[in-house]
Amino acid sequence: MESIFKGQPDLAKQLGREDAAFKQIDKIFRIQSARIYKEQNCYRALIVNEKDFIKTLTEMNRGLESIQKELRSFLEGKRGIFARFYFLSNEDLLEIIGQGKDPKPINKHIKKIFEGVNSIETDGG
Hints:
Blueprint: H1 2-5, H2 9-14, H3 16-39, H4 42-48, H5 53-81, H6 90-98, H7 104-107, H8 110-113
Helix pairs in contact: 3-4, 3-5
């Protein structure tokens, strides 16, 4: 999910609530990872010094599952608008949607969308 929300700003804007939730989960994950790395003792890092660590992990997992569910729903909506998107994997469709201002990435997937079309040309580059 990091590549979606950090690597594709257009897509992150379209999924504003999910983007904010992901950033919060990512922040907690990074804090916990740094804490565990600093401790360098698995037992103390995970059990002794952080009694609610399992709860934190469970909440982060629930949050990521919720984001993933919303992402699938978002993609289904896009496929409902343009049925040829059903021929693309979620990853391919995310790449196309995330590069909305630049039509060049579509060429890489155009064969999957339209039979017999190998590429498209656009004005301006």
